[in-house]
Amino acid sequence: MAELKVDKILPATGSSIALGESGKTVIIPSGATLNASAANVFISDTAVDYCSSLKTSPFTASAARGYFINTGSAVTVTLPSSPSVGDQVIVIDATGNASSNNITLDRNGSKIKGGCINAELQTDRVGVRIVYSGSSQGWVTATSANETAPVLNTTQYVSATGGTITTSGDFKIHTFTANATFCVSNAGNSCGSNTVDYLVVAGGGAGGSNIGGGGGAGGFRESSGAASGCYSKSPLGACVSALPVSVQAYPVTVGGGGTGTPGPGAQPAGGSGSNSVFSTITSAGGGGGGNPQNGSATAGGSGGGGRTCDPASSNPTAGGAGNNPPVSPPQGNNGGNGVASARSGGGGGATTVGGNGGPPSCSGDGGTGATTSISASPVAYAGGGGGGGFTCYSTAGTGGTGGGGNGGQGPASSTGSNGTANTGGGSGGGGSASGVAGTGGSGVVIIRYKFQN
Hints:
The chain has no helices and 23 strands. With 453 residues, it is mainly β. The strands form 5 sheets. Strands 12, 13, 15, 16, 17 and 23 form a 6-stranded antiparallel beta sheet that branches. It has a 5-stranded mixed beta sheet with strand order 1-3-5-8-9, with no helix packed on it. A 5-stranded mixed beta sheet has the order 2-4-6-7-10, with no helix packed on it. It starts with 48 loop residues before the first strand and ends with a strand.
């Protein structure tokens, strides 16, 4: 190999010297040093092209590009997706306001400096060149000016007030038994928490009077628990996503229970429960139980139990429809059917339909509710009310697990039991020939999230 030994190279004309020809590679051997400290030597970084226009709004960066940012407002730079080792991006605060209008580097699924959180440039006139080093550490700082490196956002968790607050390990639980507000002061981030799990149970329906059908349970809706740790969920919560939250006030509505109609006589069906609401989740109030002389059972989260009839008549009816309006997974079930000879149907529950009246001689039991440990201990919610009974012909139905009230029983007129407060249980139907139905149980809203690690 030929060698050329000189002490100094000067241009023949002009002021530039070309080392090599276009398309050729100039190799600096390992161990050699290129010393540019004593001369005005400019080395062109051909690996990066600069975008000549200032960026003023959020954008997605490309590898091997440099960007000048107008920090008259905050700008988010989304880093390239699926980067390769050696990919680099340069970001420069061109207008000198990054301290008040931060430049956010959105990691776009890759790590930044080994963390799974975004980074911020917070110093005026900051410039930084970041290089992708691989999946372990992700994007790392290669060079920077006015700041040693991008500042990583700290791991953040949801923080909120409202309701009765308890803790279970690393998780907070907000329980609402009346209308109030869930106020989020910090929405968290993906490395801490930024979603919440929920249970929303509506008010239970009231049973019908005069050997009436049982009240339907309030609608039951629950998320999967993925946001807030391991606890026993109901089957209805399977595969239901947690809710993202933002910094704002979320009104929480807790539905009241339906009111039973008085006996005796041709009374309407029992009153329906009221809806419970949190964010985008609405659970429907339970349907009222039927009255044998007038009112048919009504639809709701779970439907009310169907009315019976006088032994000489032929006007028994089906129970009210559950999961009304429809959601997936279903928030409740149909009420049971009433039959002749003073046998009314039970109200529907969260997991099963209400029982049909007879045979041989009984009114229907309330449908079964659902059990969840979202509150840190197992509690059953949304059981249907039992149908009212009449000693000469039938035995009253039993309320379903989850706060459903028992049906009233003769021989004298008897009142159906109330649904249990804050469970969404339906009330029992009134017994005998003039029994009054109970009042449906009020609903509840429970919100749970991770607040520390």
